[in-house]
Amino acid sequence: MKNPFIYTAVGGLVLFLWQFLSFAALNLHGSAQAYTPKSDEIIDFLESIDLEYGMYALGAPSPEERTDPGLQEEYLLRTEGSNWGVLNYQPNWTNDMLPNLGRGLFMNLLTAFILFWMMRGMSDRSLKRRLLVAMGMGWVGFMFFPYSNFIWFKNPDVWAHMMDATVPFALLGWLAPSGD
Question: I want to staple 12 with a disulfide (CB 3.0 to 4.6 A). Which of 48, 67, 85, 112 is the partner?
């Protein structure tokens, strides 16, 4: 696959299909999208308190507690061992997946193109080298965002993200042109 357009198209589709498998068909990320029978009750409560839409770190310090050293110490003592959570409260649920699928496919195509571009300049294009470079790219993305988030927020699907950074990228490395 020496043609960058063919590699971009095939590679982008590999990434896109892997994401479908990972998030839907195989549900590897199910632990981060768990159902609770209290869903309606929670949403009703959030609406009743007029909470602005956004993402919240529940249990986080107030702006004053972040800047005042005395209040920081009180906050740390008060919250040690307490429950905490992350809330992403959004308006207007829609089942129109087409825009999101389109943006996802575009990013997958761009990722495959960037990987092809990086590999095109390599003098050693052995299978081992292509696999290492492709999986390295996947792992850089994994370490920078999903794993860093896991360190602080204990995202339950961190190992699914690790698979997402390994399996499809290994396949892209295998598909990359050998330079022969």
Answer: 112
Question: pLDDT, tens digit, for every residue of 74-90?
Answer: 999 999 999 999 999 99
CA distance 129 to 122: 9
What are the C-alpha distances in Å from 82 to residues 77, 78, 148?
10, 8, 22
**Amino acid in the structure at residue 14:** V
Distance CA 115, CA 141 (A): 13
| CA–CA distance, 111 with 117 (Å, rounded to integer) | 10
C-alpha distances (whole Å) from 120 to each of 61, 64, 104 are 48, 52, 24
Q: Where are the domains of the chain?
A: 4-33+95-175
Phi and psi dihedrals of 136, rounded to 5? -60, -40
Query: pTM of the predicted model, to two decimals?
Result: 0.84
